[in-house]
Structures are given as structure tokens and as C-alpha cells.
């Protein structure tokens, strides 16, 4: 007998109130004899209140959400039946609202019944998991505590009323609220309910209003020099929102830079254009039979016959559907962008791996670069470099460089400490350590980086067609504008083939090295 | 009798190594108050890696440093080519203070004077065996032709003929460690640092490599610091052994001294499991003839007794005494110098002399 109580003791300690019930259930769970349909009736009735008392916040959320959905549905029933009464003169509206209210009623009942059964079914099983956690960590919630119930009900009180209120009301639109703001500014009286609606259940209210900034322009003076000219806004112009104010300031900053440091951006543009010109002349300027033969040969040598056949088929597709020149255009852009990425990414990666400061500076920049959607890069490219291929390449480089830097750094950091130690023990200096040990051992990682760069360049080059980079992406954007689905699909397939071609070849080349 | 080393090649004087950001502070405190390892850890969050170690390794000697993992033996040996800088003390190689060297001199010393073999081989996987072996030469900008020539010579020494153009990945563990050894010897250094070179190999291969290294070491006469956690290996390889514990050297001596006169319980524990047959010699267990005859016994005529040399080990004595009733007479210059009874022999095998 005593051994039996010993077995049950930890369960009793954990569950506290009504411990013998939970001891039975947990024992059954451990012996795998718990019935499939076992439901905790107390939990089913108590729902989130039970979960709060028992300190299982996962179940609390599940129970609360089930009841909340039920309540919202009921609120909608109320809202639409009211609406049906209000619009009693319009038969079609009455029919519509009554239909809706009926649907929500059924929704409410189904959610409540099924939800509660699910909750009752989950309750003991989740609670047993909580017990297992408690076994290793006694600070895990256990027993029954009123404090937790109060906390849970507080959460319910904060969320439920406002949410239910929101569902029973028709939310005011933004214009109504702006009008209301004006009316308030002019000292008119607005009913409290309207103000509350605008403040809480509509759009997030605009708190901040700022006086318009000075208008800034950069005309030339009599000597032809650019000067800064500020014009104060007229006194009765309405104030602007934070968003408007700051974007205006950013515009001013960018135009300042382009006006006074334009030579810098022009210089970069020219370098890019020159480089691209050289590459394009190789891809586009060479007669197609030669380009095609060379590409096939390269594919065959680096990736073997199977890939070469695939490349041949893809090239044939591009050629037969009239995409040859455009595809070669895109290839030139990809090659140009990839070269720049590698040339700048490799040293940056080495710097990141070697220097604490390098890591501190570069890593956050890379994080930001990788989280920003590719579209957003087009904006600064246009702002500083206008439209065309050079800004397209720049946007692509910014988008595609992070993996190069990261994977280079990763590769170098992964070089085993003892291999480096051995090199040092034989008298390697830092440069020899880098070139003879670290870079060769990091090579697989670096090659993966190059692969990524090429693939990301291709995807970005297509997007960059939006700012006039041309190539295959241009056909797609054009097709989008004119809703020429067929042309778009053909070009899309072409892009996909181009991507697969490059990917296969680069990847095979990697694995074979 | 063991020959006295002519000249000390590697000398460490009171070397200390304390790891941690507050190492200097801890060092000063230890010098002042003679704190223990645990006290330093608690007060300065610093770890004492090497504690006041002074060793002298003579030319051509194989000096074993034995200790369990964490005893500081690897740390100590890395001070010799300054992969680790000491917190206190000095390290002299051929009389030159290693810590006084500039960066370029240090690299030159590492490449020309010291070869190192690592437990995990640490070969470069993308280079052929030959290029791995010639690595130190390449770092010193020796031309490719000379490099290959020198490397091939060493490849022969470690019997890896025909493997020069293979990659290390194609080789077994034992062969890889031969490459490691060859790499350490390629630049013909004066000193070999061997950091548990054979520990990762399986026992048969390990024994084979030990024998080969012993043979090589006899002909090449390289001053060797050999690290191991295995006392058997230390005894096989070392002309002298230093036993380390918690960063300190507990005892230094020849294998026989370590086995027969362990300095403390720690060493005695290690020695307990070691076979003494090859380590203890007749001169240690024999008693003078007079002492034997004191108890009224009479030594039988010498020609009826098994005879042995004072330099014979217990193993040889056991061989002589089997099937005999008379004690062994130890002869030197055709004169009896001592007697070993069966009892003394059995005691000797137990390590009691």
C-alpha cells in the first residue's frame, strides 16, 4: 500500500486541490491506459478560468480564444439583427442581415460546443505535460492559485469588452475622423461616442501634427553656381503629419546630395556603365552561334554531359521564342553584379571574420540588408542614380552581396583552431595563414556564397527592370502593364530556365571542386 | 649508466601561465601569497594552466611530459614555440630567450628550429602529402624544387614512399600521423615538440609508430619533448619523464626512478599498474654477498648458480632463475658483486627495492 501512495505522491504534490483525480489520470497517461475519449469535465466547464487557476497559460489562451470567438459571433448576431430592425423598410437588406445573423448564430453554437469538448479533451493531456516540466523544474506553475485567476480575469477584462464593442459597431472611416478632428479644432462639440469610436476602434489616431517645413530648392545664381533657397510655407497652410514632414525632409536631403555631389554619383554611374558595356559586348556583341557554343562547352566541362544537355535545351528555348538578345542582356547584368559582389564581398567577409570591429559594423548592416524586401532597394538607387542599368546593377549588388560576406566570414571562422595553430607553429605569418590555410579551407563556403550571389543577382535583376534595367524582367513588367498573360508566361519560363541553368552549372562546378 | 646530456637545448625557468582577463593581477597575488589553484579561480576567475615549471632538456634527449588531461602539459609545451605566452618566467632555446624575439625572428625560429606534431594531425586537407610535409619550407619561401626534394627525403624516413601525391584524406590515421611527423622533421629542426602524437591511434598502430619513432630518434638525435597521458608510452619513449598535475611538475626522473621511487601518492598510483619487468635492473634488487651470508646461509659455488649482469632487467633475471633452486649471482668483471634471491626478485617485480 505504501508503495502505491509513494507513486501517487508527486502527482498529489503537483496538482494540490483535487489531487487524487489528477493522480489517477496521470498514472493512466503514464501507463498508456487513458481512454481516447477521456475528457476533464471540470476543465470543460471552467475553460480558461480552470486553466488560469491551474497556471497553464497555453490552455488559458486556447480556452479564452474559443469563448471569445463564440462571444464575437453572438455580438455579430446582435449587430445584424439590430441592423435588420433598423432597415426594416428595405426588404433586401433585411434578408441579407438576417441571413448573416443566422450564420453567426450557428457559428457561435458550433464553436462553443466543439471548442469546449476540445478543451476538455486537451486539458488533462496538456496538464500532464506541465507536470513533466514541473518534475525537472519546481518553479513551474503547480497547484491552484487565486492570484493567477485574478491575473487571467484581468487579461479577459482588458481584451473582451473592447473587442466585443468593436464587433457590434460599424467602424468610422478615416475621412469621418479627420473631419471630426477639424471640427474639434474649431471648437465644435462632438458626441463622446463618436470621439471614442474614432480614437479606439478606427485607424490609429494621428497624434502628431507639425508645421510644414520650409520648401527648399537649389536654383543657379547669376554666376551659374547652385545656391540653397528656402521658402517659408504660407501662414495659413494646414499642419502636416509626422510621415509627411519626415519624407519631405528626406527628399530635401537627397536632392541636396544629388545637386552638390552629383559628380560622385555620375562617376559611379559611368564606371558601372563602362564595366557593363564591356561585359554586354561579350554576351550580346558576340554572334549567337559562338556564344551558344561557348556556353555549352563551359557547361559540359564544369558540370558534365547531363547538365550540358539541359543547358542546350534551355538555350534553344530562349532562342526559338525570340528571347536570345534579352536573355544575354540579363546575363550581362547578372555577371556584372556578381563580379562586383564578389570583389567587394570577399574582403568584407575577411574583415568581418578577422576583426571584432568589422563584425560589429558589418553584421547589423547585413541584417538590415537581408530583411529589407528587394523592392525597397530600388528607391535609393533611383534617387541617386536616376533610372537605367547602372542603378539597376547597384540595387542588385546591395541585394545580393550579404551572402558573399556572410559565407566568406563563416568559412574562415569554421577553419579548425588546431589547423591554424599548426600553421602558426610552422612559422606562418598572418598573410600566409590567410592565403595558405584559411582561404583554401574556406573555399567550399566561399563557393556557396558565389552561388548564392549569382542566384540572388538574377532574381533582383528581374525586379530591377522596374527602374529600367531592361532584360528579361522588362518583358514581364511590360506584360503585367498590358495584361498580356501569354507573353508574360513565356518570359517567366525563360527566366526560370536561365536561373536553373546558372544554378546547375555553378553548383556542379562547386561540388566537383 | 645513462649518459649525462652534453648541453641543455630547451630550458624553462619558473614558467607560469594564468588564463583570464585578470591574469597579471592573479600572478602578482600568487607570487605574494602562494594561492592555490582553487583560490585563484575563486578570487580572480583565472585558471592556473602552468605553475612554476622549470625543466631542462638536453641535446638529443627524449623528454616525456606525462599527465592527465587538464594537467597543463599541452599548455606548457606550447610555451616553447610561444604559441602561448607565459604570464611569468622565461623559456630559453639554445640560450635564447623566446619571449624576447621579434615577430619575424619568432617565425624564423618556429620554421627552422622547432617541429611540432599534433594529436589530431592538423594536416591541410587540400594539399598533397608532399606539400603538407614541405609546408614549413614553403612558409620560408624555399623554392618548389628544393622543397620537393627535401620532402621526398623525409617521406622515405617515415616510409611513405609512393604517397607523396595523395591527399591526406586518402590515408589512414596512422599514415596521416606519419605525415605529421614528416612535416615536423622536413625543415630539419633541432627540436621536436610532440603533443600526444599517438594518442588518437589504435594500440597496434601506436606501438608500431612508437618503435619507428624510437629508431628514428636514435639516428636523428633530435631533442624531443614528448607529451603523453599514458605512462606506459612515457616509459617506452622517454629518457626522462616529468609528471604533471594541476599545472605543476610533481616529479622528474628516469623511468626507473619514477617507478621505484614515486615522489608522492599521485605518482605511486600511476606507477602501481605498470609492469616493472623491463624497468628495474639487477643492481637495484641485488644484495651484497656478505649480507646474503650473514644469516648463516652459505652461497653455493658460483658455477652452480645462475649468473647475470648488473644491467640486466628483472625480465632477464626471471628467465635465468626458472627451474633453479640457487639464487642468482650478479657478476661484474667476472667477480660476484651481489646476490638476487627469488624473494628479492618477486619483491622487485612488485616494485619494492
UniProtKB/TrEMBL annotation, chain A:
What Pfam families does the annotation carry?
A: BPD_transp_1
TM region positions: 57-78, 105-128, 149-165, 275-300, 307-327, 333-353, 365-387, 393-413, 453-476, 488-506
The entry assigns this protein to a family as follows: Belongs to the binding-protein-dependent transport system permease family.
Principal localization reads membrane
Q: Which UniProt keywords apply?
A: Cell membrane, Membrane, Transmembrane, Transmembrane helix, Transport
Can you list the GO cellular component terms from the UniProt entry?
A: ATP-binding cassette (ABC) transporter complex
Species per Swiss-Prot/TrEMBL record: Roseovarius nubinhibens (strain ATCC BAA-591 / DSM 15170 / ISM)
**Compartments, as annotated in UniProt:** Cell membrane
> Which InterPro entries does this one have?
MetI-like, MetI-like_sf
Membrane topology, as annotated: Multi-pass membrane protein
The identity of this protein, by name, is Glycine betaine/proline ABC transporter, permease protein, putative
Q: Per the UniProt entry, what are the Gene Ontology biological process annotations, in alphabetical order?
A: choline transport; glycine betaine transport
* Residue ranges annotated for the ABC transmembrane type-1 domain, each copy included: 327-506
Name one molecular function that GO assigns to this entry. Answer: amine transmembrane transporter activity
TrEMBL record, chain B:
Protein name, as recorded: Quaternary amine transport ATP-binding protein
* Entry's EC annotation: 7.6.2.9
Lineage of the species this protein comes from: Bacteria, Pseudomonadati, Pseudomonadota, Alphaproteobacteria, Rhodobacterales
Tell me which species this is from: Roseovarius nubinhibens (strain ATCC BAA-591 / DSM 15170 / ISM)
Q: Which cellular components does GO assign to this protein?
A: plasma membrane
Q: What enzyme category does the UniProt record give? A: translocase
| SUPFAM superfamilies the record matches | P-loop containing nucleoside triphosphate hydrolases (SSF52540)
- In the UniProt record, the signal sequence range is none
Under Gene Ontology molecular function, one entry of this record is:
ATP binding
